[in-house]
Amino acid sequence: MSIQDPKAISVSGSVADLLAQVDETLSALNKRRPFPAQTEDLLRRRFLPDRITATLNIEGIGVTRRETLAIMEAMTISSNASREEREILNALHADAFIYEAVDNKIGVEPGFIRRVNELILEGVHGEAGIFRKSNVEISGAAFSPPSHVDVPSLIQDMCDGFPASGFIHPIMQAAWLHNQFTYIHPFLDGNGRTARLLQDYCLLNRGLYPVGVPTKRDDYYSALQLADEGKWDELVELIALAELSLISKVDAITREPEKKTAWITQLAKAASAKKTGTLHKQYLVWRSRMELARESFLSTANEIENSSEVIGVSQRTYDIIEFEKWRQIGDHGSADRTWAFSLLFFADGVPFYKVIAFFRRHRVEPMDPYHSTDGIVSLAITGQDAQSRDRPNFYVFQDPQIRLREMLYLNDQFVAYQQQIGKQLIVPSDDQSLDEVVRNFFEDVFYRKAAVGT
Q1: Cis amide linkage into residue 6, ω under 30° from 0
Q2: Half-sphere exposure (CA, 13 Å, Cβ side) for 70?
Q3: Region 6-251: CATH code
Q4: Which residues of the chain form CATH 1.10.3290.10?
Q5: CB burial class (10 A; 0-12, 13-18, 19+) of residue 329?
Q6: Which of 152, 224, 383, 449 could form a disulfide with 355 if both were Cys (CB 3.0 to 4.6 A apart)?
């Protein structure tokens, strides 16, 4: 075997057009870069769990995204951790090393490659980072890797050829390094994971984003086999499509703050426009606050869902009511189809409680010090056991284990109405923030309804 000359790589016109599209899309994104360090960190963490999970799954290592997220948060494992947990942690360390290598301008050389493999196999294989000392066969592959005797020289040839491949498109360079390494198959284990990290090193080093496993298993292995034969279209296309998709996602995420600013500016203009009635001004402000309240519940539910194998919360969202229905509720007390969201709570995989949040007109109680709340549309909740077949009570929610009853804004003041523990009295509170109220609500459900932690 000899290393393929990167200068000999050619692709069809359609693939060349795809690479040009990647360049055009990336160029548009780069006009908005550099992003703040906080945004860059967000982008890396947003896509890392899927990349790590996929690169392990394709090797038959059965891990889930939730398990990956849990280890990402801790970046450590217990002494009695499973092999799968060790594999996740190793993959995370190896990925971090690739980023450091790009930042520190470490080139592709044998020691660098051995270190990547060593990190991948640390604690799970006795020859981590050591070139194989025996010949191997790959089950299902159409080729036999070269003799172990030739591995060091072939790796050196590949490293020597890498700088010369810098003139070709970054994705073609990444495909070339990925394929050549895979063909050499220099280690007894971890070759696929190492190859994909080398591919991502190339992409990062040339200003693109790491894509990990570019597509489905069968298409991926078929593309690698064709590249072995000097047919590069499929492998280059798979990586290019994955890169194009990722750039689009990055563009959307990084525009979120701009969209939010534009929306708030638009809202402020709408609220101050003389042609807009006073009532509609109130509605626009109310709507923005209720969207914030809803997002606080849903984001908390999502964090719980992604951070625990024991408890979970599934969610369903509905559109915030429009102006006419909001006015109808304020005038008449209620309206049809006013759900804001619903939550279904799980413990040990079994649903135990469901909650519906909906909009209604606040009813002033005799003990209520805020008499001016009459006519204000509030966000109320009702709930019941998950197995109940009864229709939820949207008039009087009486569960003594759940404190929260409704929330509203009185002028600029957030007010939460909650049942006092052990009493039937519902009292308003304006000394708690939205986040505190939401936290207390989830704690009530899990601690009191499911006895979590007892």
Answers
A1: no
A2: 18
A3: 1.10.3290.10
A4: 6-251
A5: buried
A6: 383
